[in-house]
Amino acid sequence: MDSIKYFTFTMIGSILGICGILLNRQNILIISMLTESMLIAINLDFLVFSISLDDMMGQIICFISSNSVSCGMYYWISQSLRYY
Q: Which parts pass through the membrane (predicted)?
């Protein structure tokens, strides 16, 4: 498995997310989507490290963090949309 491709892909995704947040500070939904894309890139890093090191801990961390982030983002968006 050539992990350099995956690390390059996740680095580009993280940099695009950071640049998007810095350039767009007015729309909260776009900021939350960019934050979610950065977290997905980090989860992909965990998976690639887990597969390349032959360790299940990265996959477990990825599964737990993706579930908790999804629930947190859903709660945060539902609470922020309630006041509109």
A: 6-23, 30-51, 57-77
Structure tokens at 60: 């477990």
Q: What total of structural domains would you count in the chain?
A: 1
The secondary structure element, H or E, covering residue 54 is none
Asked if residue 65 lies in contact with residue 43, where contact means CB atoms within 8 angstroms, the answer is yes
Say which CATH number the domain at 61 has.
1.10.287.3510
pTM of the model: 0.69
- In 3D, which of 8, 12, 80 has the Cα closest to residue 48? 8
Span 34-70, pLDDT tens digits:
888 888 888 888 888 888 888 888 778 777 777 777 7
- Structural domain containing residue 61: 3-82
